[in-house]
Amino acid sequence: MQDPTSKHPKPPFEEQKQPFPGLAGEMTPKPDHGETSYKGSGRLVGRKALITGGDSGMGRAAAIAYAREGADVAINYLPDEESDAREVIALIQDEGRKGIALPGDLRDEAFCEKLVEDAVKALGGLDILVNNAGRQQQVGSISELTTEAFDATMKTNIYAMFWLTKAAVIHLPPGSSIIQTTSVQAYDPSENLVDYAITKAANLSFTKSMAKQLGPKGIRVNGVAPGPVWTPLQVCGGQTMDKLVEFGGDTPLGRPGHPAELASIYVQLADNDASFATGQIYGAAGGGGHP
Ligand code: NAD
Ligand code: MG
After folding, report:
1. CATH architecture assignment, domain 42-284
2. 196 belongs to the catalytic site
């Protein structure tokens, strides 16, 4: 047993700012993605997963957990994140599983189609798709939210999910699982995350409609809704510096979550044990969150 209030560091945190998309390896304190803690028990033996944003944060925690549960894993990330991605690939391969690195920008439809094809080729099929990559850049006033920034958030967080799912569906056998990372922002949007919160609500809605569309084909579609989690997203423009220093302090647990604390949710939603769970959103927000 471990007290959740003291399991990970509490605010105040050191001021820190990285250029987008940020590196987990350069954060203080370092996020815990389960590198030394996650223990598998054969829940995903023989499964084949593609995870976007698999280099860091929730995607990295899912990638490590999936490999330790017996899955082969392909990860997508941006070329600037190669150093984080290399660590993940090494951790996957340490488990004796295939670890496939497929960098590239998801804002491009042709790239999304190629990503799915490359993953299918390298893994010998596909039965888990985790739409997890995301862009979050805080802007205090709608007058300062540019069309370019708005468009980049929509492309990364909504269009990529649509393009990847569309390309993947033809490859997914019955028993497959699609998982979106949505957010508490889908239900309780912040004043300075207007564009981002729209996309997280879209991730949630897409999850529910696609669960209805794909249920008859035996493909389950679910979402994970994190609250404040200590990841690069937050230190490269996702929060104001004031909010970053106090990040997670207003949750009942008094701290932000770490990606490792959500890994088992991604496993559960992919596992056949959860065969009656579809169209569901699983929260992990340290005490707040759902409507
Ligand atoms: P993260 O920075 O570790 O992961 C986001 C990833 O998105 C990056 O690693 C990057 O590889 C990828 N990405 C961004 N733009 C991309 C692009 N154009 N092309 C390809 N990849 C791109 O941070 P995270 O917090 O783990 O984010 C993962 C998901 O969790 C996101 O969808 C985010 O919205 C969601 N989320 C995070 C929090 C939080 O507090 N950290 C809370 C709720 C939801
Ligand atoms: Mg990253």
Report:
1. 3-Layer(aba) Sandwich (3.40)
2. yes
